[in-house]
């Protein structure tokens, strides 16, 4: 069964094209025009992914992702104005998995939807078990544990953790990390926002994110996962 997508967009012309394209790919789409409608849909549950425009009549996509994160870790793609780096970074800090700028290119949006859902489903790995310090990763289940407690990571945080766990005790440049994160959707995370993702990952896996021990910064070079 294809995924069920929540789509928040108040422009009927834009929405009609996006909904048509997503449904043509086999997705079930619930189109909502306001924050209120979208939040009510989130409360009803059953969605696999949300595509949220930032500018809505009664608020913004930020109001919706807050509602989403109170209830779970559903992946979110933000739709932002072109070159709006401030809102892009804020969205990532709130837990968005990806973003796409207007004007929307439908093929790119579909590629990003597929990529986020694929990453959330768990990338295929050769090992049944990986670890990084006291963090245990089960790639076949796309689940991460710290002791007995399961950690809820976004799809991109999970993919980033896999990159470090499979390259332990190696210094990775920012460009090398970005290359691992690219897919057919293109450069969906750039050098500026990579810092945000690493910060978010550290907050979930480190004892003290301000003094990281698992993912350390190698000044002038990049990052190193301490095995």
Q: Any overview of this molecule?
A:
With about 230 residues, the chain is of the alpha/beta class. It has two domains: about 5-120, Rossmann fold (3-Layer(aba) Sandwich); about 130-225, Arc Repressor Mutant, subunit A (Orthogonal Bundle), CATH 1.10.10. The chain has eight helices and 14 strands. The chain has helices at about 10-25, 35-45, 60-70, 85-95, 105-120, 155-165, 175-180, 190-205; strands at about 5-10, 30, 50-55, 55, 60, 75-80, 100, 130, 135-140, 145, 150, 170-175, 215-220, 220-225. A five-stranded parallel sheet has the order 2-1-3-6-7, sandwiched between helices. It has a four-stranded antiparallel sheet with strand order 8-9-10-11, with helices on one face. A hairpin with a 2-residue loop joins strand 8 and strand 9 (about 135-140). Helix 4 (about 85-95) runs parallel beside helix 8 (about 190-205), helix 5 (about 105-120) crosses helix 6 and helix 6 packs across helix 8. It is globular. The N and C termini lie far apart (about 40 Å). About 35% of the residues are buried.
């Amino acid at each position: 069964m294809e995924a069920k997508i929540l789509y928040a967009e108040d422009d009927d012309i834009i929405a009609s094209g996006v909904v048509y394209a997503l449904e043509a790919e086999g997705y079930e789409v619930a189109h909502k025009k306001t924050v209120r409608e979208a939040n009510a849909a989130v409360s009803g549950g059953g969605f696999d992914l949300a595509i949220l425009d930032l500018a809505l009549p009664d608020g913004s996509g930020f109001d919706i992702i807050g509602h989403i994160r109170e209830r779970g870790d559903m992946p979110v793609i933000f739709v932002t104005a072109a070159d709006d780096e401030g809102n892009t970074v804020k969205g990532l800090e709130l837990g968005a998995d990806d973003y796409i700028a207007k004007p929307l290119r439908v093929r790119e949006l579909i590629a990003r939807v597929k990529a986020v859902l694929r990453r959330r489903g768990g990338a295929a790995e050769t090992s049944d078990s990986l670890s990084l310090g006291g963090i245990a990763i089960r790639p076949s289940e796309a689940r991460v544990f710290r002791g007995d407690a399961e950690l809820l990571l976004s799809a991109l945080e999970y993919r980033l953790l896999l990159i470090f766990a499979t390259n332990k005790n190696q210094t990775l440049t920012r460009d090398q990390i970005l290359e691992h994160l690219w897919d057919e959707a293109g450069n969906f995370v750039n050098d500026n926002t990579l810092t945000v993702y690493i910060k978010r990952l550290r907050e979930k896996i480190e004892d003290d994110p301000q003094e990281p021990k698992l993912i350390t910064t190698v000044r002038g070079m990049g990052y190193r996962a301490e095995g």
